[in-house]
Amino acid sequence: MVSAALLATISGVLGYALAQQAAPPPAALAYTPLSSPCPANLTLVRSAGGKNPTLSPQESAYVAERRRKVLPGAFKTYLSVVERSADQQNIPLPHYLTTILGGQGHLPTMSISMSGGGMRAAIFHAAMLNAFDARNATSADAGLAGLLQASTYTHALSAGAWTMLSMLQANFPTIQDLVFGTDSGPGGEPTGGWNSNFGIATISSNTTVEDDFVEVLLTEIAGKFQAGFPVTIGDVWSRALARHFTNGTTPSNFFATNVTHGAGLRMSSIIDLPEFTNHALPFPTVTTDTISTFQNNSDLIPMGISPLSNPIYEINLFEFGSFDDVLHSFIPISLLGSQNGTCVTNFDQISFVQAVSSDLFSSDNTSTVSLNDSLLGSVVAVLNENFEQPGIRLDSAAIPNPFMGIEPEKFIDHNQTILVFADGDSDGENVPFQPALVKERSVDVIIAIDVSSDIADNFANGSALVVAQERVAQFSHQYSFPPVPSSTEVFVAQNLTTRPTFFGCNTSPDVPLLVYFANGGPPLGQTPVTNFSTLVEAVPQQQVQSIMDQVFDIATQGIPINGVEKDPKFPLCLACAVADRTRARMGKKREGVCETCMTEYCYN
Ligand SMILES: *[C@@H]1O[C@H](CO)[C@@H](O)[C@H](O)[C@H]1NC(C)=O
Ligand SMILES: *[C@@H]1O[C@H](CO)[C@@H](O)[C@H](O)[C@H]1NC(C)=O
Ligand SMILES: *[C@@H]1O[C@H](CO)[C@@H](O)[C@H](O)[C@H]1NC(C)=O
Ligand SMILES: *[C@@H]1O[C@H](CO)[C@@H](O)[C@H](O)[C@H]1NC(C)=O
Ligand SMILES: *[C@@H]1O[C@H](CO)[C@@H](O)[C@H](O)[C@H]1NC(C)=O
Ligand SMILES: *[C@@H]1O[C@H](CO)[C@@H](O)[C@H](O)[C@H]1NC(C)=O
Ligand SMILES: *[C@@H]1O[C@H](CO)[C@@H](O)[C@H](O)[C@H]1NC(C)=O
Ligand SMILES: *[C@@H]1O[C@H](CO)[C@@H](O)[C@H](O)[C@H]1NC(C)=O
Ligand SMILES: *[C@@H]1O[C@H](CO)[C@@H](O)[C@H](O)[C@H]1NC(C)=O
Ligand SMILES: *[C@@H]1O[C@H](CO)[C@@H](O)[C@H](O)[C@H]1NC(C)=O
Ligand SMILES: *[C@@H]1O[C@H](CO)[C@@H](O)[C@H](O)[C@H]1NC(C)=O
Ligand SMILES: *[C@@H]1O[C@H](CO)[C@@H](O)[C@H](O)[C@H]1NC(C)=O
């Protein structure tokens, strides 16, 4: 990533700049957190309670308003798309289905759950959201449009969080505009889209260009260091990701040092955007894992670095913390970084949250040699050269621990001043199910999108679901999970990753029904383009389009007929799944096409 030459010179350069108090770049100023004493009457930590923890009042209020003002119309739009598909095929819809989706009862609570998997996953999720987007006429013709607008929640980890947060912070543009940019943004300026032609941290094979780029990233985090906060590879990664997944970078200013490149855009500022105040956005949550000195390592899955018993953290637009009863505590997201009566703002940067959830570098730190040989090694060396921070782990993302002293018997980090974060997949649960399982959210349907690289050809094999089921078994007093096979062999043998599969069709309506879409193989006899490595950072825009086109077929194919033709009734089947929990609660039997669909699409 960076060369030995840079290593030799950079500390001199940075040290000189800092000593001379040279004007820091605007991104460094915008990235620096601010500290002040907390107001005397502030209670920083909210205890969410134990077994059945409570949501923040702000989340409850947002969801209630969304349900009242937005969801009835959104479901009507979705229903009209489903009815059109049914009419074209001359298939009558069960009366209960049109009643439920028409809003004459309790509207289903849906969450869309997006996995990690680098640029492969980021693009895959964008294409799935496009297929679910009411604004896209092609998606309406395919019978899926409107699911995105009708969802109550979106949950994401790692690259899923790149897609989700980039969409939200851009005020919910169409997916094409989000990914590819537009020529006429506000004020007639072009917007950059994801700038996917450029790599993220690895920009060039020309070491001069690459070293200059990494040096700029380091100058951008220097202000945070000088303000007394730990800076790690998570911060370097944050500044690199910001050039793709937050506003402010275009192909023409990509290397400019006089713009902020998204620094200063905060999680807590998303709530001021028009689409949020209109309640038009599904309520978003990012999940991430910790690694801790006192974790129970007998509980690690193979290759995992965060045991299943560690708390899973949630970062949403209002709060940071964990619902797991080993912690069950939250602080306001706007005060992320606060500790001991010092209140911190501007720490909750969007790109930092994207980095916290996607810091996969700690996995390379299995030994000094493997660390040294990895991408991480050279960055750790320059961090060490420039920022002296004894005792700080540099391979991960660091957040001052606001939960010290809480649950000394159960909380592994109760006496640690820094919480150490690694990729949301560090426990092997690469699909973020946990937020949807919190009882008070009452999620009926989880649409899970799994773009894990499990096998040699970078396709998924269901391991994220196997692991999720294992974790829920450890927290069974708190959460319930629909039954899934306990081994990936079954997923593979039964083709559960190469076609959409519904899980939990016959369990209690209090357990969410799971609609599973995996990147498990190419659709309809096509040549695969969706299975490149998680480490690929740059994807030319033309290639992005062809990936999105193939994912559109993965979203819409259903169980292919003779392996090559889309199942035309799949949109109806998906609608049946969306309404199924409400149907059960109404005491109705499955009827007509829904009965057929559930037989074909349900596992067991
Ligand atoms: C704390 O005190 C300030 C004024 O000093 C007041 O504006 C604020 O509402 C108080 N907050 C709470 C939670 O009581
Ligand atoms: C709608 O989705 C299709 C399929 O991915 C895509 O080709 C098209 O550009 C999208 N249209 C708009 C207006 O975003
Ligand atoms: C990001 O840019 C979009 C326009 O492209 C704008 O609508 C939105 O408000 C911006 N977001 C933030 C957080 O400034
Ligand atoms: C690397 O980039 C620098 C700066 O743009 C340029 O001067 C140099 O010729 C490039 N080296 C090679 C081998 O292309
Ligand atoms: C940044 O610098 C470029 C040229 O170096 C200039 O065209 C541009 O206006 C500057 N932008 C800002 C925000 O100062
Ligand atoms: C660590 O995990 C193992 C396996 O789940 C369990 O048997 C053991 O009781 C745990 N140890 C502690 C101290 O919690
Ligand atoms: C908070 O208190 C702990 C323990 O006393 C200390 O190690 C840490 O540095 C303090 N943090 C801040 C921001 O003062
Ligand atoms: C780390 O790698 C560098 C060269 O890349 C090598 O000189 C050094 O000996 C290595 N250190 C260890 C501990 O492996
Ligand atoms: C690598 O992991 C060890 C703990 O296993 C930790 O002490 C060390 O700080 C890590 N190295 C880096 C560079 O973060
Ligand atoms: C911190 O807590 C762990 C148990 O959670 C304990 O083993 C360790 O001794 C504690 N360290 C200190 C310095 O109190
Ligand atoms: C599925 O992927 C996991 C890694 O995520 C691997 O350990 C397991 O062996 C794979 N199972 C099969 C059947 O290939
Ligand atoms: C899985 O798919 C393969 C090839 O598409 C097919 O031959 C096989 O019968 C399918 N297995 C099951 C259990 O559906």
UniProtKB/TrEMBL annotation:
Task: Cite the EC number.
Answer: 3.1.1.5
Per the database record, which ranges form the PLA2c domain? 37-604
Which enzyme type, at the first EC level? hydrolase
Q: What are the entry keywords?
A: Glycoprotein, Hydrolase, Lipid degradation, Lipid metabolism, Signal
**One CC-aspect GO term:** cytosol
Q: What is this protein called?
A: Lysophospholipase
Q: Which reaction does it catalyse?
A: a 1-acyl-sn-glycero-3-phosphocholine + H2O = sn-glycerol 3-phosphocholine + a fatty acid + H(+)
Residues spanning the signal sequence: 1-19
